[in-house]
Amino acid sequence: MNEPRIRFENIAKRYGALTVLDNPDIPCNGKVMNEPIVRFENVTKRYGALTVLNELNLSIARNEKVCIIGPSGSGKTTVLRMLMTLERINGGVIWVDGEPLTHVQKRGQMVLASDRHLRRVRGKIGMVFQHFNLFPHMTALQNCMEAPVSVLGLPKKDAEARAAELLEMVGLSGKKNHFPIQLSGGQKQRVAIARALAMRPKVMLFDEVTSALDPELIGEVLSVIRKLGAEHDLTMLMVTHQMGFAKEFSDRVCFFYDGKIIEQGPPDQLLGNPQNERTRQFLSAVLEANS
Amino acid sequence: MNEFALGFSVAALVKGALTTLVVTFGASVVSIVLGLIAGLLRVSPLWPLRWFAVGYIEFFRGTSLLVQVYLLFFVLPIFGVALAPWTVAIFGIGMNVSAYGAELVRAAIQAVDRGQYEASIALNFRRLTMMRRIVLPQAVRIMLPPWGNLLIELFKSTSLIFFITITELTAASKLAADATGNYLLFFAVALFGYYVIARALITPFVRWLERRLSSGFVRQVLS
Question: What is this structure's pTM?
Fold first, then answer.
């Protein structure tokens, strides 16, 4: 690693309660923008004797939309969960925005990161879950306000305004005082998307976000994601079974099999003309299931 | 039956019932506070706190309440700590019940859906904030019905404090029965008295809490 010429290290700037900069680590050597925002470097994940991911290498560029497909048990959800720090990794390093997420550099050595470091870096990442995981004791609006207020320390008024704005963006301004139990699956998932966005992540992870929905509700969630991709500078990493959406939305599709990426490329190529036998088998099975 | 003995006995009975109520209330507060603390320590990520909670729970849950109360009342004075009977009653019963309560707290915290923890991590909550804002509000709902049971248990166990010189409802009934010879009447009154107090005070209180805390949950629709 060559040392950057200028470096901002943990600079914070606040105006009253509003945090404008929160400890960004910006090595300014002119290469920052070209650096991938997420990079998996030889990442291995094991559950006991079972190796779920085997020396995974995957780089994701800023604002890139990547879809991950593959049969169940292939490790695709694990990729997202490790990036969100919901799972510890057993080998390798994950880099986020130019710095290691899972490790810190100490005297030239990489050592496992403390919780404090994890918290700081994972603030750049937001996640939407298959089963929504909304807070049941809070209304849609409160769900979107809670973390900005109690994690970022935003004043309630500002957090509420932002939450209302986000709920409007996902088409739910009329439901902001409803509890999750009063919402349909599609509505819940849209609240969950707004809730994740309220933390202003740079990278959004979508973990099979339409898999728990009735077929007629899938469209409303996908159109929100489509809108997000079009209107915001967001890097998106999505595990999905919606091949049509992957084809139209993503910049790249990765096919996972047995803990490895065995084929990846632009969606037209990978979904239209797959080179690997496993990919072909998987796609024809999915196609059959959907026909 | 002797009019004088009857009047005297009824007055003693009322006083005994009041004593029972006061001790129940005090011990309930102690057990809820300590049970919550011990339950939270029991699920702490720091092992010394967790072990401390385990020791506390094992001691107070695993040994006899009456012996614990005796210990506080008769043994502590040997070491120069003399506590008033009321203090022993309230803290002795409170600590004993808090050990059971701590396990209810632990079970409820662990029963909160795993997805709630994962969402809290994804939203970058600190552990304590997550506990306070996300997990506990849901855990409290889960643990209320068993806490209701536990408080009724606590209420009935207050009869043991007769052994440390406090005349509560059971003791007052026994004394009244002895004085008048009317065992049927006074034990029936005691039996009924316990039921009425539990039914009229503890159960409605827990129900009220359940209703208050159920916004956003299915129970609101079902109840």
Answer: 0.83
